[in-house]
Design brief:
470 residues, three-stranded antiparallel β-sheet, five-stranded parallel β-sheet, Rossmann fold, single chain, alpha/beta, 22 helices
């Protein structure tokens, strides 16, 4: 609850001290850094790269540009900065621009303090309400950001020269708070000029009025590197006024990608369908590896980037397809299998931009990346020497059928007819695993051996048949 202080006199008596928003953020950031706590919760993979730079910027009191491709948690970090503000802040009651009770700047607040003195009413603003955000678009105007004369107030009888006729824009309304501009290069250059005073002189000037409002705002912007030369650019004087420019990046390891994927994904709940859903570790690794391979592929437009949202969406689609398959089969447990990876086409092809001279190659590029992800994961998780017995059994005439139409018990039964599969499945899903988990491991091993060119595979709509290469 906010403090029970309702007048300016009570605020003075309480000993509350006014401080700038950057001093406030710096003080709270110092406490977090000193205690070893992260600046934000839920932002992974930046501990040794982005976070030290951001900590430096906050401790230095800088305005910041976060520069990076889509899906690199830029907006999440910006919005999380409100956690470094004090929980509640006092303002002059009725103020549109969060006037400091000790240093009011708007005409309304100055007149109220002059009239009522220590009896001036005080209101309290929560830190979540001290954040303003604008997605930069070409049609954004100075009136949106800074302000304009309100014709309704003029029609009510006020003079144009009266400061009370002003309708404040988003930046003044975020006074004593944090204002964020996403995709800053998309803002028209003439509008970017309007931000120069905000960043340097710390004030705004509104057309038709000789009024200057000294603002207390921390400005944070995000931008895509390609925007500097493509859709737009950040004008040089504006870039010069930002204290720090911090480059973000995609997860540097598959393990970090998996952690983000698990933290962000929405998974089907057991109560929704009565079926428990699981994605085993080897297929989670395939999903994360797919994104990493796409970021290194010459067939994918790397300037556009491959968002972490790709991994999240693919993980969700994989779990959903496993659930759908289990529901059709009447099973009470759904564990994702190799067959379910086909569902990733719908969530992948629209999120990556293919670099191809001819149209229609998206499906082929997707399929090749997916096969490469399965093969890479197979080589990482399965000991090649342990698969010799499986290959030998196939060379002696063993044939295995897999597919979405086969139940978990039928696939798990392959372990009984091919004992060499048992230690491989146990290494992947653990001892005592359910039939559904063993079935997933069996399919993964067979597909990995096929992609390693140790087994042949005949694919059909009804499923796949694995046999010896000879």
């Amino acid at each position: 609850m906010p403090p029970e202080i309702s007048t300016l006199g009570e605020l003075r008596a309480s000993g509350w001290e006014s401080r700038s928003v950057k001093t406030e953020i710096r003080s709270n950031a110092v406490a977090r850094v000193a205690s070893g706590r992260p600046l934000f919760d839920g932002v992974l993979g930046y501990e040794d790269t982005v976070m030290p730079q951001l900590e430096n910027a906050l401790l230095a009191g800088h305005d910041v540009i976060l520069l990076g491709e889509r899906g690199q948690a830029k907006t999440r970090m910006i919005r999380s900065l409100t956690g470094l503000l004090d929980e509640y802040m006092p303002i002059i009651a009725g103020s549109e621009i969060n006037d400091d009770p000790y240093h009011p700047v708007s005409r309304h607040a100055r007149d109220l303090v002059a009239e009522m003195g220590d009896e001036t009413p005080i209101a309290w603003v929560h830190r979540d309400d001290r954040f303003g955000e604008k997605l930069a678009t070409p049609d954004t105007s100075i009136a949106d950001l800074i302000g304009e004369v309100d014709p309704i107030k003029v029609a009510e009888g006020r003079y144009l020269s009266d400061e009370l006729t002003l309708h404040y824009g988003l930046v003044p309304r975020t006074n004593r708070g944090i204002f964020a501009i996403n995709e800053l290069p998309d803002l028209a250059e003439r509008i970017q000029v309007g931000l120069l005073n905000v960043l340097e002189e710390r004030d705004v000037q509104i057309r038709g009025h000789r009024v200057r409002l000294p603002l207390d705002v921390m400005l944070i912007a995000s931008a895509n590197p390609d925007d500097y030369t493509s859709r737009g650019r950040i004008i040089t004087p504006l870039k010069d006024r930002f204290g720090s420019q911090i480059r973000t990046h995609y997860p540097l390891s598959v393990e970090i990608e998996e952690q983000i994927m698990l933290a962000e994904a929405t998974r089907p709940e057991v109560g929704d369908s009565g079926v428990s859903v699981a994605v085993p570790e080897h297929l989670m690794r395939v999903v994360a590896e797919f994104s990493h391979l796409a970021r290194a592929s010459s067939h994918v437009n790397q300037r556009s980037g491959v968002s972490v949202r790709l991994s999240v969406s693919n993980y969700e689609a994989l779990a959903a397809n496993a659930l759908r398959r289990a529901l059709r089969a009447g099973e009470s447990e759904a564990v994702a299998r190799i067959d379910d990876l086909d569902a990733l086409a719908a969530t992948s092809i629209g999120k990556i931009e293919i670099e191809a001279l001819e149209d229609g190659r998206e499906g082929l590029v997707f399929e090749n990346l997916l096969h490469q992800a399965v093969l890479t994961t197979f080589r990482d998780l399965v000991d090649p020497s342990a698969t010799a017995g499986v290959v030998e059994a196939f060379e002696e005439g063993m044939v295995a059928h897999t597919g979405a139409g086969l139940s978990s018990s039928e696939l798990a039964g392959l372990v009984g007819s091919l004992p060499a599969l048992a230690p491989l499945a146990e290494a992947l899903v653990g001892s005592g695993a359910s039939e559904a988990a063993v079935a997933s491991a069996v399919e993964f091993v067979l597909e990995g051996l096929h992609l390693s060119r140790r087994l042949n595979k005949d694919a059909a709509e009804s499923g796949s048949t694995y046999r010896a290469r000879s």
